[in-house]
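cron nightly-structures :: item 1 of 1
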Amino acid sequence: MTLLASSLGFSSTRREKQTLVTDMDGTLLRGRSSFPYFALVAFEVGGVLRLLFLLLASPLAGLLYYFILESAGIRVLIFATFAGMKVADIESVARAVPPKFYSSDLHPEAWRVFSSCGRRCVLTANPRVMAEAFLKDYLGADMVLGTEIGVYKGSATGLVCAPGIVVGKNKAMALNKAFSDTCMPEIGLGDRKTDAPFMKLCKNCFKTLHLRSVTGLAEDIVPALFSDFKFLECLKLEKCIGLRCLEINAGGSLKSLTVVDCPDLAEITLSASNLKSFSYQGVLPRIQLKNGVNLVDVMLDMRAVIGHNEFDCEELLSLLAALKDVQILTLSGWLLEF
Protein backbone atom coordinates (compact mmCIF):
# COMPACT_ATOMS: atom_id res chain seq x y z
CA MET A 1 0.00 0.00 0.00
CA THR A 2 1.15 3.51 -0.64
CA LEU A 3 -1.16 5.63 1.45
CA LEU A 4 -2.89 5.10 4.70
CA ALA A 5 -6.33 4.98 3.16
CA SER A 6 -5.31 1.91 1.18
CA SER A 7 -5.97 -0.03 4.38
CA LEU A 8 -9.69 0.54 3.77
CA GLY A 9 -11.21 -2.71 2.64
CA PHE A 10 -8.17 -4.59 4.00
CA SER A 11 -9.16 -7.84 5.64
CA SER A 12 -8.10 -7.92 9.29
CA THR A 13 -8.84 -11.61 9.79
CA ARG A 14 -6.21 -14.36 9.93
CA ARG A 15 -3.33 -11.91 10.32
CA GLU A 16 -2.08 -13.25 13.67
CA LYS A 17 1.02 -14.80 12.13
CA GLN A 18 1.90 -11.79 10.00
CA THR A 19 4.19 -8.85 10.73
CA LEU A 20 3.22 -5.24 10.03
CA VAL A 21 5.36 -2.13 9.84
CA THR A 22 3.76 1.30 9.84
CA ASP A 23 4.73 4.95 9.81
CA MET A 24 3.51 6.89 12.84
CA ASP A 25 2.56 10.50 12.01
CA GLY A 26 -0.14 10.71 9.35
CA THR A 27 -0.61 6.94 9.26
CA LEU A 28 -1.04 5.34 12.66
CA LEU A 29 -1.98 8.81 13.91
CA ARG A 30 -4.27 11.07 11.91
CA GLY A 31 -2.18 14.19 12.41
CA ARG A 32 0.96 14.62 10.32
CA SER A 33 2.58 17.22 12.55
CA SER A 34 4.59 16.21 15.62
CA PHE A 35 5.03 19.78 16.82
CA PRO A 36 2.22 19.63 19.45
CA TYR A 37 3.93 16.62 21.07
CA PHE A 38 7.32 18.32 21.07
CA ALA A 39 5.67 21.35 22.69
CA LEU A 40 3.97 19.15 25.28
CA VAL A 41 7.21 17.46 26.32
CA ALA A 42 9.07 20.79 26.30
CA PHE A 43 6.55 22.33 28.70
CA GLU A 44 6.18 19.32 31.01
CA VAL A 45 9.93 18.80 31.40
CA GLY A 46 11.41 22.25 30.92
CA GLY A 47 8.59 24.58 31.83
CA VAL A 48 7.50 27.84 30.21
CA LEU A 49 11.01 28.97 29.25
CA ARG A 50 11.73 25.77 27.34
CA LEU A 51 8.38 26.01 25.57
CA LEU A 52 9.14 29.63 24.66
CA PHE A 53 12.52 28.58 23.24
CA LEU A 54 10.80 25.93 21.12
CA LEU A 55 8.23 28.42 19.86
CA LEU A 56 10.98 30.87 18.88
CA ALA A 57 12.78 28.10 16.99
CA SER A 58 9.64 26.81 15.24
CA PRO A 59 9.67 29.31 12.30
CA LEU A 60 13.20 28.20 11.40
CA ALA A 61 12.15 24.56 11.77
CA GLY A 62 9.13 25.11 9.51
CA LEU A 63 11.20 26.89 6.88
CA LEU A 64 13.73 24.06 6.77
CA TYR A 65 11.07 21.34 6.89
CA TYR A 66 8.86 22.60 4.07
CA PHE A 67 11.33 24.38 1.79
CA ILE A 68 14.83 22.99 2.36
CA LEU A 69 15.06 19.52 3.91
CA GLU A 70 12.52 17.68 6.05
CA SER A 71 15.15 16.14 8.31
CA ALA A 72 16.80 19.53 8.97
CA GLY A 73 13.53 20.95 10.31
CA ILE A 74 13.09 17.99 12.64
CA ARG A 75 16.66 18.39 13.90
CA VAL A 76 15.85 21.95 14.97
CA LEU A 77 12.74 20.80 16.87
CA ILE A 78 14.70 18.03 18.60
CA PHE A 79 17.50 20.36 19.70
CA ALA A 80 15.14 23.08 20.92
CA THR A 81 13.06 20.55 22.86
CA PHE A 82 15.60 18.14 24.35
CA ALA A 83 19.02 19.83 24.66
CA GLY A 84 20.11 19.65 28.31
CA MET A 85 17.12 17.66 29.56
CA LYS A 86 17.75 14.63 31.76
CA VAL A 87 16.84 11.46 29.92
CA ALA A 88 15.10 10.09 33.03
CA ASP A 89 12.80 13.13 33.07
CA ILE A 90 12.02 12.73 29.35
CA GLU A 91 11.16 9.05 29.82
CA SER A 92 8.97 9.80 32.85
CA VAL A 93 6.96 12.47 31.02
CA ALA A 94 6.74 10.33 27.86
CA ARG A 95 5.01 7.59 29.86
CA ALA A 96 2.61 9.87 31.72
CA VAL A 97 1.52 12.74 29.48
CA PRO A 98 1.62 12.24 25.68
CA PRO A 99 -0.24 8.87 25.57
CA LYS A 100 -3.68 10.39 26.23
CA PHE A 101 -3.13 12.91 23.42
CA TYR A 102 -1.69 10.28 21.08
CA SER A 103 -4.69 8.03 21.81
CA SER A 104 -7.20 10.70 20.81
CA ASP A 105 -5.40 11.11 17.47
CA LEU A 106 -5.27 7.41 16.64
CA HIS A 107 -6.53 6.64 13.13
CA PRO A 108 -9.33 4.03 13.40
CA GLU A 109 -8.59 2.29 10.10
CA ALA A 110 -4.87 2.13 10.75
CA TRP A 111 -5.55 0.78 14.24
CA ARG A 112 -7.85 -1.90 12.82
CA VAL A 113 -5.09 -3.19 10.57
CA PHE A 114 -2.34 -2.65 13.15
CA SER A 115 -4.15 -4.50 15.92
CA SER A 116 -5.00 -7.47 13.69
CA CYS A 117 -1.38 -8.46 13.12
CA GLY A 118 0.62 -10.71 15.40
CA ARG A 119 3.85 -8.71 15.30
CA ARG A 120 3.95 -4.92 14.96
CA CYS A 121 6.74 -2.50 14.17
CA VAL A 122 6.49 1.31 14.08
CA LEU A 123 8.80 3.66 12.20
CA THR A 124 8.89 7.29 13.28
CA ALA A 125 10.97 10.40 12.70
CA ASN A 126 10.21 11.39 16.29
CA PRO A 127 12.81 10.64 18.96
CA ARG A 128 12.31 7.05 20.07
CA VAL A 129 12.45 8.10 23.71
CA MET A 130 9.39 10.32 23.17
CA ALA A 131 7.12 7.80 21.40
CA GLU A 132 8.21 4.35 22.54
CA ALA A 133 6.30 4.21 25.82
CA PHE A 134 2.96 4.96 24.15
CA LEU A 135 3.55 2.62 21.21
CA LYS A 136 4.65 -0.33 23.31
CA ASP A 137 2.64 0.06 26.51
CA TYR A 138 -0.65 1.28 25.01
CA LEU A 139 -0.72 -0.05 21.43
CA GLY A 140 1.25 -3.25 21.91
CA ALA A 141 4.01 -2.49 19.41
CA ASP A 142 6.81 -5.06 19.51
CA MET A 143 9.44 -2.77 18.00
CA VAL A 144 9.85 1.01 17.67
CA LEU A 145 12.41 2.35 15.20
CA GLY A 146 12.77 6.06 15.81
CA THR A 147 15.35 8.81 15.76
CA GLU A 148 18.04 8.37 18.41
CA ILE A 149 19.27 11.47 20.26
CA GLY A 150 22.71 11.85 21.80
CA VAL A 151 23.19 11.45 25.56
CA TYR A 152 26.04 12.73 27.75
CA LYS A 153 26.19 11.94 31.46
CA GLY A 154 22.48 11.19 31.60
CA SER A 155 21.37 14.32 29.75
CA ALA A 156 20.24 14.71 26.16
CA THR A 157 22.61 16.72 23.97
CA GLY A 158 19.86 17.63 21.51
CA LEU A 159 21.99 16.24 18.68
CA VAL A 160 20.91 13.34 16.52
CA CYS A 161 22.85 10.08 16.41
CA ALA A 162 23.80 8.35 13.16
CA PRO A 163 22.28 7.52 10.73
CA GLY A 164 20.19 10.63 11.40
CA ILE A 165 16.48 11.44 11.32
CA VAL A 166 14.40 8.39 10.41
CA VAL A 167 12.74 9.69 7.24
CA GLY A 168 12.76 8.58 3.60
CA LYS A 169 15.54 6.12 2.82
CA ASN A 170 16.62 6.07 6.46
CA LYS A 171 13.34 4.31 7.27
CA ALA A 172 14.20 1.57 4.77
CA MET A 173 17.72 1.30 6.22
CA ALA A 174 16.38 1.02 9.76
CA LEU A 175 13.89 -1.64 8.71
CA ASN A 176 16.55 -3.61 6.84
CA LYS A 177 18.82 -3.55 9.86
CA ALA A 178 16.09 -4.52 12.33
CA PHE A 179 14.93 -7.48 10.24
CA SER A 180 18.33 -8.56 8.91
CA ASP A 181 18.14 -11.91 10.72
CA THR A 182 14.48 -12.64 10.04
CA CYS A 183 11.80 -12.31 7.38
CA MET A 184 10.67 -8.87 6.29
CA PRO A 185 7.17 -7.73 7.34
CA GLU A 186 4.32 -8.83 5.12
CA ILE A 187 2.38 -5.57 5.44
CA GLY A 188 3.46 -1.93 5.24
CA LEU A 189 1.43 1.19 5.95
CA GLY A 190 2.46 4.74 5.03
CA ASP A 191 0.92 8.07 4.05
CA ARG A 192 3.38 9.82 1.74
CA LYS A 193 5.67 9.15 -1.21
CA THR A 194 8.76 9.20 1.02
CA ASP A 195 7.39 6.09 2.76
CA ALA A 196 7.67 4.09 -0.47
CA PRO A 197 11.29 2.92 0.13
CA PHE A 198 10.45 1.02 3.31
CA MET A 199 7.07 -0.18 2.03
CA LYS A 200 8.66 -1.77 -1.03
CA LEU A 201 10.61 -4.02 1.31
CA CYS A 202 7.37 -5.62 2.53
CA LYS A 203 6.34 -8.92 1.02
CA ASN A 204 2.77 -8.22 -0.03
CA CYS A 205 2.24 -6.96 -3.56
CA PHE A 206 -1.13 -5.26 -3.22
CA LYS A 207 -3.49 -5.56 -6.15
CA THR A 208 -6.36 -3.49 -4.76
CA LEU A 209 -6.09 0.07 -3.45
CA HIS A 210 -8.93 2.18 -2.04
CA LEU A 211 -8.17 5.79 -1.14
CA ARG A 212 -11.01 7.46 0.77
CA SER A 213 -11.18 10.96 2.23
CA VAL A 214 -7.52 11.63 1.48
CA THR A 215 -6.81 15.35 1.13
CA GLY A 216 -4.11 17.20 -0.77
CA LEU A 217 -3.41 14.54 -3.39
CA ALA A 218 -0.91 15.74 -5.98
CA GLU A 219 -1.40 15.28 -9.71
CA ASP A 220 1.49 12.81 -9.86
CA ILE A 221 0.07 10.52 -7.17
CA VAL A 222 -1.31 7.91 -9.58
CA PRO A 223 1.88 7.62 -11.69
CA ALA A 224 3.75 7.21 -8.40
CA LEU A 225 1.44 4.35 -7.42
CA PHE A 226 2.17 2.49 -10.63
CA SER A 227 5.91 3.02 -10.44
CA ASP A 228 6.10 1.77 -6.85
CA PHE A 229 3.42 -0.95 -7.00
CA LYS A 230 3.52 -2.63 -10.36
CA PHE A 231 0.88 -5.28 -9.58
CA LEU A 232 -1.94 -2.84 -8.86
CA GLU A 233 -5.09 -4.03 -10.66
CA CYS A 234 -7.94 -2.14 -9.00
CA LEU A 235 -7.86 1.52 -7.94
CA LYS A 236 -10.70 3.39 -6.23
CA LEU A 237 -10.56 7.10 -5.35
CA GLU A 238 -13.38 8.30 -3.11
CA LYS A 239 -13.98 11.78 -1.68
CA CYS A 240 -10.37 12.80 -2.28
CA ILE A 241 -10.19 16.59 -1.94
CA GLY A 242 -7.50 18.47 -3.82
CA LEU A 243 -7.06 16.04 -6.70
CA ARG A 244 -7.59 18.19 -9.82
CA CYS A 245 -6.13 16.15 -12.66
CA LEU A 246 -6.09 12.37 -13.03
CA GLU A 247 -4.08 10.74 -15.79
CA ILE A 248 -4.10 6.97 -16.18
CA ASN A 249 -1.46 6.01 -18.71
CA ALA A 250 -0.16 2.84 -17.14
CA GLY A 251 0.68 0.11 -19.56
CA GLY A 252 0.83 -2.35 -16.69
CA SER A 253 -1.76 -4.35 -14.82
CA LEU A 254 -4.47 -1.82 -13.89
CA LYS A 255 -7.83 -3.27 -14.91
CA SER A 256 -10.40 -1.30 -12.91
CA LEU A 257 -10.69 2.40 -12.02
CA THR A 258 -13.44 3.88 -9.84
CA VAL A 259 -13.75 7.58 -8.99
CA VAL A 260 -16.45 8.69 -6.55
CA ASP A 261 -17.22 12.23 -5.34
CA CYS A 262 -13.85 13.92 -5.82
CA PRO A 263 -15.13 17.52 -5.90
CA ASP A 264 -12.01 19.24 -7.23
CA LEU A 265 -11.41 16.86 -10.12
CA ALA A 266 -11.54 18.79 -13.39
CA GLU A 267 -9.93 16.44 -15.90
CA ILE A 268 -9.51 12.68 -16.40
CA THR A 269 -7.30 11.25 -19.14
CA LEU A 270 -7.38 7.50 -19.83
CA SER A 271 -4.80 5.80 -22.03
CA ALA A 272 -4.16 2.51 -20.21
CA SER A 273 -4.36 -0.40 -22.61
CA ASN A 274 -5.32 -3.02 -19.99
CA LEU A 275 -8.02 -0.92 -18.32
CA LYS A 276 -11.34 -2.77 -18.71
CA SER A 277 -13.66 -1.14 -16.19
CA PHE A 278 -14.19 2.57 -15.50
CA SER A 279 -16.77 3.97 -13.10
CA TYR A 280 -17.26 7.66 -12.37
CA GLN A 281 -19.65 9.39 -9.99
CA GLY A 282 -19.58 13.10 -9.28
CA VAL A 283 -19.70 16.53 -10.89
CA LEU A 284 -19.02 16.75 -14.61
CA PRO A 285 -15.27 16.70 -15.43
CA ARG A 286 -13.50 16.71 -18.78
CA ILE A 287 -12.90 13.06 -19.72
CA GLN A 288 -10.53 12.12 -22.55
CA LEU A 289 -10.03 8.64 -23.97
CA LYS A 290 -6.78 8.25 -25.86
CA ASN A 291 -5.68 5.58 -28.32
CA GLY A 292 -5.19 2.13 -26.89
CA VAL A 293 -8.06 2.18 -24.41
CA ASN A 294 -10.13 -1.01 -24.60
CA LEU A 295 -12.85 -0.46 -22.04
CA VAL A 296 -15.49 -3.14 -21.57
CA ASP A 297 -17.65 -1.83 -18.71
CA VAL A 298 -18.27 1.92 -18.17
CA MET A 299 -20.54 3.65 -15.67
CA LEU A 300 -20.99 7.45 -15.78
CA ASP A 301 -23.10 9.01 -13.06
CA MET A 302 -22.33 12.67 -13.72
CA ARG A 303 -24.52 15.22 -12.03
CA ALA A 304 -25.99 18.16 -13.84
CA VAL A 305 -23.93 20.48 -11.64
CA ILE A 306 -20.92 21.55 -13.64
CA GLY A 307 -17.62 21.18 -11.81
CA HIS A 308 -14.58 23.30 -12.59
CA ASN A 309 -15.20 23.27 -16.34
CA GLU A 310 -17.64 25.17 -18.51
CA PHE A 311 -20.19 22.87 -20.09
CA ASP A 312 -18.95 21.75 -23.51
CA CYS A 313 -21.60 19.96 -25.58
CA GLU A 314 -19.10 18.86 -28.24
CA GLU A 315 -16.77 17.27 -25.69
CA LEU A 316 -19.62 15.34 -24.11
CA LEU A 317 -20.83 14.07 -27.48
CA SER A 318 -17.26 13.11 -28.39
CA LEU A 319 -16.94 11.14 -25.14
CA LEU A 320 -20.18 9.25 -25.76
CA ALA A 321 -19.06 8.48 -29.32
CA ALA A 322 -15.76 7.09 -28.01
CA LEU A 323 -17.72 4.73 -25.76
CA LYS A 324 -19.85 3.26 -28.53
CA ASP A 325 -17.93 -0.04 -28.59
CA VAL A 326 -18.03 -0.86 -24.87
CA GLN A 327 -20.02 -3.95 -23.96
CA ILE A 328 -21.73 -2.49 -20.89
CA LEU A 329 -22.50 1.25 -20.71
CA THR A 330 -24.43 2.69 -17.77
CA LEU A 331 -25.41 6.37 -17.88
CA SER A 332 -27.04 8.64 -15.33
CA GLY A 333 -30.56 9.95 -15.94
CA TRP A 334 -29.26 13.46 -16.62
CA LEU A 335 -27.10 12.26 -19.51
CA LEU A 336 -30.01 10.31 -20.97
CA GLU A 337 -32.22 13.38 -20.82
CA PHE A 338 -29.46 15.39 -22.49
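cron nightly-structures :: done
Confidence is low (pLDDT under 50) at residues 1-9.
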